[in-house]
Amino acid sequence: MAKVLVVTSGKGGVGKTTSTAALGAALAQMGQRVVVIDFDVGLRNLDLVLGAERRVVFDLINVVQGVAKLQQALIRDKRLENLWLLPASQTRDKDALTDEGIGRIIAELRPRFDWILCDSPAGIERGAMLAMRYADEAVIVTNPEVSSVRDSDRIIGMLDSKTVKAERGECVKKHILIARYDAGRASRGEMLGIEDILEILATPLLGIIPESQDVLRASNVGSPVTLHNADSAPARAYVDAVNRLMGETIAMTVPTERKGFMSRLLGRRAA
Amino acid sequence: MNLLRLINGRKATAPVARERLQILLAHERGLRGQSDLLELLRAEILAAVQRHVDIDQDKIVIRMERGPQVSTLEVDIEVPNGAHKSFAAAG
Ligand SMILES: Nc1ncnc2c1ncn2[C@@H]1O[C@H](COP(=O)(O)OP(=O)(O)OP(=O)(O)O)[C@@H](O)[C@H]1O
Ligand SMILES: [Mg+2]
Fold this sequence. Notes:
The structure holds 2 protein chains of 2 kinds.
Chain A: E1 3-8, H1 16-29, E2 34-38, H2 46-49, H3 60-64, H4 70-73, E3 75-76, E4 83-86, H5 99-109, E5 115-119, H6 126-132, E6 137-142, H7 146-159, H8 164-167, E7 173-181, H9 183-187, H10 194-201, E8 205-210, H11 213-220, H12 225-228, H13 233-245, H14 261-267
Parallel strand pairs in A: 1-5, 1-6, 2-4, 2-5, 6-7, 7-8
Antiparallel strand pairs in A: 3-4
Helix pairs in contact in A: 1-13
Chain B: H1 2-8, H2 14-50, E1 60-65, E2 72-77, H3 87-90
The complex binds adenosine-5'-triphosphate and magnesium ion.
């Protein structure tokens, strides 16, 4: 039975979609069966980051409304046979997503996968609520910056009260993923430090993803960063995070660019 | 690090960010619990009043004022004239 993991944040543009794609791909690379669901109705992007934008025929709302079968809407990744995408609708009305419809889809997916990753839209409205509704675990993507930390705190409050698990008196397992981290700026005191964020949010850390050009290069070509450049700092950070999700204990480091002569030469190769 | 700061003459702003966040979030977390409590009180007071008087859902306003020693709960219900249910019905 799959674990349902929501990737959420409150604040927009912090790296949810990038992280959903990278975590999903890294899990699939380890042999896990993974489906990633784009909940960002009207602003779908997960298809683009995964390079599947031209293969979308049916979407989440089609399935909720019974226009298409789940089987018809699922898109299998071309590189990773264990990775599937359920795209969001680009045009249809957001209200077409219903709690009960999502519940049915999740129930149908659970026995077929090991992981169901839900890419939440920004905000704290209905869309974000539906994305987290059936979650067993949550990755809260946070940038080291005041407004992002504040929004993460709000989202933690929602995870503890609005999810099916919370309503049953159980607890969604929460993880903080710090994204777009700049070690230089943090050490100069220009950016909130890791300890500050963890102390304020009182939630365990899943990983630290450095700010990196490799993320942009990977999304330019429609490939999760763990596939596109497995040796890059963000890719190694995502792989560490996924190993922690799988229950392994791995020392927390901020992966940095490898500046050896060879990797510098290789790194210069254009994406 | 301090040397760096001396050289470029800028003070680290992260400690300020941290302190502001801690104060703000302590406040917001308090409100969160409170708004749930207020919602509950609102629903139960409304139900109690509606057993005896016909009132509109949105004609009940409830506010909590937090003071250092005591807090006050303010309940404001607009009752239209002649809305009383008959005494017999109200039991
Ligand atoms: N580690 C990183 N280094 C550099 N750029 C990054 C990193 N992570 C994300 N980005 C960039 O930040 C932008 C926003 O990322 P992304 O779309 O993943 O955020 P999001 O939280 O899903 O946004 P939205 O709230 O709009 O859905 C993108 O341009 C992405 O390439
Ligand atoms: Mg997104």
